Amino acid sequence: MVTTRAPEDAYTAGPFVPERGGLAALREAAAGCRGCPLHRDATQTVFGAGAADARVMLVGEQPGDQEDRQGRPFVGPAGKLLDRALAEAGIDPGDAYVTNAVKHFKFTQAEPRKRRIHKTPNLREMTACAPWLAAELALVEPELIVVLGATAGKALLGSSFRVGQVRGTVLEEEIHGRRERLVPTVHPSSVLRADDREGAYQGLVQDLRTAARVLS
Ligand code: URA
């Protein structure tokens, strides 16, 4: 039997992204995205959440286990820590638009019913998903993007992005045809994994204070 399969380079969400209709139309269309293979194993698309007029957009990597089940970004342990850090830095989490570079959960699972272990999305999957993030940026037009970790940084700023080199600084870059201001910081999951959790948490809060100053 001959099976036809698109070359992996052809993975893209582009044809699924509607040209009109605002965030609601985007979210609805994203639910049916088949732009890369990640939709096959994930429970659902986890699209961005928050107001279309949010002043700040937070961009993470991809939904985790909880997000995949609940269909909303940053509702699991990393999200709870992020909300606490935002509030401590002076940014109301309810005022932010929160999304991810990749909209489906990528994981490995030793056996059915065993724990699903997060797997970092690769460049092809990030590139395939980029049209959704571009569409969110074009609609929300945030004053500031908070880049949460390396995958979000690579998705927005290119593969040479190194979070350790630029965290806590204010960057200005052309992204998808718009001049954007960005403050990169670590991913909240890395705080949960850190040996010095309190130190890592304080570092995150300090970076978010830089973001809060840009917004003030
Ligand atoms: N980690 C992310 O990057 N995004 C989520 O939505 C949850 C965990």
From TrEMBL:
<feature type="domain" description="Uracil-DNA glycosylase-like">
    <location>
        <begin position="47"/>
        <end position="209"/>
    </location>
</feature>
<dbReference type="Pfam" id="PF03167">
    <property type="entry name" value="UDG"/>
</dbReference>
<comment type="similarity">
    <text>Belongs to the uracil-DNA glycosylase (UDG) superfamily. Type 4 (UDGa) family.</text>
</comment>
<keyword id="KW-0227">DNA damage</keyword>
<keyword id="KW-0411">Iron-sulfur</keyword>
<keyword id="KW-0378">Hydrolase</keyword>
<dbReference type="InterPro" id="IPR036895">
    <property type="entry name" value="Uracil-DNA_glycosylase-like_sf"/>
</dbReference>
<keyword id="KW-0004">4Fe-4S</keyword>
<keyword id="KW-0479">Metal-binding</keyword>
<keyword id="KW-0408">Iron</keyword>
<keyword id="KW-0234">DNA repair</keyword>
<dbReference type="InterPro" id="IPR005122">
    <property type="entry name" value="Uracil-DNA_glycosylase-like"/>
</dbReference>
<protein>
    <recommendedName>
        <fullName>Type-4 uracil-DNA glycosylase</fullName>
    </recommendedName>
</protein>
<dbReference type="InterPro" id="IPR005273">
    <property type="entry name" value="Ura-DNA_glyco_family4"/>
</dbReference>
<dbReference type="InterPro" id="IPR051536">
    <property type="entry name" value="UDG_Type-4/5"/>
</dbReference>
